[in-house]
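Lecture notes, continued. The same structure-token format from the folding unit now serves as the input rather than the output. Read the line below as a description of shape only.
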């Protein structure tokens, strides 16, 4: 069977979309599906609440740092071998979590699981850009975002069902099975998407060039402000809904499903307008939508009109803007240097995760469970994102005029 030989597959080939979804889903699913299992896991392994929360916090850190490594490696050695290695690590680490008998072993396995899972996050995006020009890539990334926005919405529900019926280890068994099946599918059907190029001499030099680019920094910071600022809301929203608005946990779960529907709607809109509007015009529209939602959320709190409807409706508008802006910002950032698409994808993901963790820390330390820190985060992020995107768009226009 030729696909199992060591001969590299031809670069520049487009990967099947279903494989890109599966690759990307592994890392995201690993973060969200175990959340309902945390109390049962802590009780079974005699873990403190803080130790149980470490399985999430360290996973996020692993996702952020791992993305810095996979991108340059894939630029040098190709997407296919790096994806296969990451998925193999994810599957092995997932298996280790299912048999862990001590908190230290479980936490260690979770770190390795996150490092393996983030390979698909980075290289799924890079593979899309490998097979398409920037405007086409924006449409395909929007479709990928549309599909992937459902993972955080449905994963906790799946995890809750598995935990209730089969115990806390069932979620880790599911991750092991999904990782193994995705690995096998990629082994047989994933082509090498990276076209032959002269790779960067070193990881640091590749990142240094990207960090000197106003285009890349504008797109990366603007994309992070538009998308992962939502993490600040997520960390505080259970307390806002339950303590201030007297909502049950069951209802809160439904609200999250509606909120993630905003991302899906924004991504669908981005898919439809990509190629019809310029990237610059699309980003302006998306940022204005996000800013409108953030301001509406802040005004609801300032005027004393906080309610389930005002919170959900305003944040849904913010998420529509985020879902619409994300594909264009990502397409712009990974198009800065065609020889460093993987590095750009990894650095973009790192900036996203880093900003999301910063927003979470601010929301949790400023005034835990209060509305005004979250409103400040969303409005401030929308304004900062607008500034960053403007810088990127102007740098893009200058490059088009001068060719530099």
């Amino acid at each position: 069977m030729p696909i199992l030989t060591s001969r590299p597959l031809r670069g520049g080939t487009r990967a099947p979309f279903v494989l890109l979804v599966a690759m990307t889903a592994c890392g995201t699913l690993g973060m969200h599906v175990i959340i309902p299992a945390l109390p049962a896991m802590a009780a079974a392994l005699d873990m403190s609440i803080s130790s149980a929360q470490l399985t999430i916090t360290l996973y996020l850190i692993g996702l952020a740092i791992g993305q810095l490594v996979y991108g340059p490696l894939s630029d040098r050695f190709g997407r296919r071998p790096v994806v296969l290695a990451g998925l193999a690590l994810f599957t092995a680490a997932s298996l280790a979590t299912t048999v862990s008998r001590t908190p230290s072993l479980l936490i260690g396995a979770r770190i390795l699981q996150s490092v393996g899972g983030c390979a698909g996050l980075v290289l799924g995006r890079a593979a899309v850009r490998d097979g398409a020009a920037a405007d086409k890539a924006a449409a395909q990334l929007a479709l990928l975002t549309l599909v992937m926005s459902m993972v955080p919405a449905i994963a906790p529900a799946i995890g809750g069902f598995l935990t209730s019926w089969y115990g806390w280890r069932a979620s880790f068994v599911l991750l092991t099975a999904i990782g193994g099946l995705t690995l096998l599918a990629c082994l047989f059907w994933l082509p090498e998407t990276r076209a032959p190029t002269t790779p960067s001499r070193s990881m640091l030099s590749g990142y240094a060039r990207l960090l000197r680019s106003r285009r890349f920094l504008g797109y990366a910071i603007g994309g992070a402000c538009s998308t992962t600022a939502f993490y600040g809301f997520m960390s505080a929203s259970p307390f806002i809904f339950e303590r201030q608005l007297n909502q049950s946990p069951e209802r809160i779960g439904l609200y999250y499903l509606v909120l993630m529907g905003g991302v899906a709607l924004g991504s669908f809109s981005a898919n439809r307008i990509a190629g019809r509007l310029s990237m610059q015009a699309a980003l302006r529209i998306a940022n204005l939508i996000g800013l409108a939602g953030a301001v509406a959320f802040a005004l609801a709190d300032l005027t004393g009109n906080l309610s389930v409807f005002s919170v959900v409706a305003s944040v849904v508008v913010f998420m529509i803007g985020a879902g619409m802006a994300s594909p264009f910002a990502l397409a712009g950032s990974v198009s800065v240097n065609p020889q460093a698409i993987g590095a750009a994808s990894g650095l973009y993901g790192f900036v996203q995760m880093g900003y999301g963790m910063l927003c979470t820390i601010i929301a949790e330390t400023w005034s835990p469970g209060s509305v005004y820190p979250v409103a400040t985060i969303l409005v401030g992020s929308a304004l900062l994102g607008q500034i960053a995107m403007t810088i990127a768009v102007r740098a893009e226009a200058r490059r088009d005029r001068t060719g530099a």
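Point for the exam: The longest helix spans residues 371-402.
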